[in-house]
Structure formats: C-alpha cells, structure tokens
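Figure 3 (text version): structure tokens given as input.
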C-alpha cells in the first residue's frame, strides 16, 4: 500500500511554492484563501515539519520545503506530460505541428493532400505562429529555418529537412530603380536575414528603409504592392515568380542552417513523426527543383 500525503494538500503546496503566495495559489486553483491555507497546515501537520517561513508579506520555502518541492515539481511535470500524451492518443493517431503562418499557408497546407493520400491514418494538427512566438507549445514538431533563439542542445536535436534559398524580390518595375531609391522590407523578428544576405552576396540591394512587418506573408504582400524589396525563401513565392508578379534580380542564395524539425523535449520519436519528417524531406526536395 502506498504511503502518500494528502494529494489535494500537495497540489496546494505546489501552487504556493511556485507562485510564492497563498493568495495567488488560491486564485490559480479557484479556491478560497482559507481553503488553501488549511491544505498547507494539513500537509505540514502530516509531514511533521514546517515547509514555509514567513518573509515579509510572502512565504519562503524552508530547506525541507525546498527539497520536497523539487520532488513534487518533477513528479507534477511527469504527470502533466503523461496526461497530455494520454489525451492526444485518445483523439486518435495524429501529429501536432507548429510552424510559421506563412509557411503553413503558402507551402504546407497546399501539400497536405499528397501526404494524406500516402498516409490516410495520420492527421496533422497545425499551430501557426510568428517567428517571435514560435516555441514547442504542446506541439510534437516545430518547423523553422531560424533556430538562433533556441538553446545549443535544441539546435543539436533538430532534424535537417532541406536547404533554404533566399532571394531579394520585388515587382519588375521596382527592380528598375537604383539601390538608393529602393526600400528594404524587413521581418520584425528575423532581421538577421538581411545581414546574412549582405554578408553572402555583398549586394547593396536597397539603401532606404527598412519597412518592417511581423509576418513574412505581409512582407510578400508589401513587395507585391510595390513598397520595396523583401527577402523571401523561394518556395514561398513559387507562384508569384512563375506569374512574373515578383522577380529576384540577384537570384537566390543558400542560408546557413536550412529548414529543420525540432521534436518536443522528452517526447521521443513516434512512427507518425518519422513518417511526416520523411515525407517533408522528399516533398521539399521536389519543390526546390
């Protein structure tokens, strides 16, 4: 028989330790201040040792409390992850993928019919985020070309999908302007792209601006409207290049890193993720040709 402390009291203790306040813990747990205080008193009486000391208007973990909190936090993290996996499995076979809204709209979603034809039992659930917000928020895989904001460990875990080639694009009429008369269109959260371009090519594409937008899709629309020169990965503007709506006067150059897939920490691989990554690699290679 397991000798466990009162679990409702442990939940209250974890919330107090994490927030540093009985009041904030009560708000999070949707309980009254008095109820959470009683849970804490019950746990301390059950353990036979104080878990907090008063510090000003707040609480500070004792040494015993800090040791217990480290174990509780780890256990809660494992329980949360296990329950999340259980809920995902209950929804049936599927894969949660996070990527930029522009990549999803302009490349991934139009290609999904091919994936579903080859893998009818796997369903993809998408989270579309901006580069600034892009994180593994519950997703099984994160797709991105710029992982500079991630840890070295995450970058080492990332799976290479395909090289990327960026070009400075604008309307044909706009391309006839001199560099001094052109405006550079930049992405607000991946401004290093222009630095990479200039370091690789040495081309003074545009000396005016920059005009900045929070999404690549908006940068493309600004270029189509004749507002300036945008730096875009070739796969995202295939149609505009074919139609002649946009032109790349200086061509497309490879950027370091490439498009990569970052698996969620602690989830391990799955047959669905392996199948999706393999399909991505093949489809991206075809679309680059």
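Below: residues designed for each position.
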């Amino acid at each position: 028989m397991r000798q466990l402390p009162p679990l409702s009291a442990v939940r209250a203790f974890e919330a107090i330790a994490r927030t540093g306040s009985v009041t904030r813990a009560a708000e999070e747990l949707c309980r009254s201040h008095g109820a959470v205080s009683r849970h804490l008193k019950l746990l301390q009486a059950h353990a036979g040792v104080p878990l907090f000391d008063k510090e000003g208007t707040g609480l500070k973990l004792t040494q015993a409390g800090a040791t217990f909190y480290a174990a509780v936090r780890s256990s809660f993290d494992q329980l949360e992850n296990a329950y999340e996996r259980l809920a995902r499995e209950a929804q049936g076979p599927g894969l949660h993928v996070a990527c930029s809204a522009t990549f999803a709209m302009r490349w991934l979603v139009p290609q999904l019919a091919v994936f579903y034809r080859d893998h009818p039992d796997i369903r993809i659930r998408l989270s579309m985020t901006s580069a600034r917000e892009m994180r593994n928020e519950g997703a099984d895989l994160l797709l991105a070309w710029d992982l500079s904001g991630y840890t070295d460990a995450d970058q080492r875990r990332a799976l290479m999908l395909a090289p990327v080639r960026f070009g400075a694009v604008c309307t044909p009429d706009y391309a006839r302007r001199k560099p001094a008369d052109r405006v550079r269109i930049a992405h607000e959260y991946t401004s290093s792209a222009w630095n990479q371009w200039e370091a690789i090519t040495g081309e003074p594409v545009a000396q005016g601006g920059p005009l900045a937008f929070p999404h690549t899709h908006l940068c493309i629309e600004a270029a189509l409207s004749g507002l300036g020169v945008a730096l875009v990965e070739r796969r995202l503007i295939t149609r505009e290049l074919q139609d002649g709506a946009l032109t790349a006067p200086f061509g497309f150059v490879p950027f370091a890193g490439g498009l990569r897939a970052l698996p969620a920490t602690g989830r391990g691989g799955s047959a669905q993720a392996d199948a999706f990554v393999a399909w991505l690699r093949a489809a991206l290679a075809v679309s680059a040709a």
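Strands lie at 52-55, 58-61, 94-100, 123-129, 141-144, 159-169, 183-187, 208-213, 229-233, 252-263.
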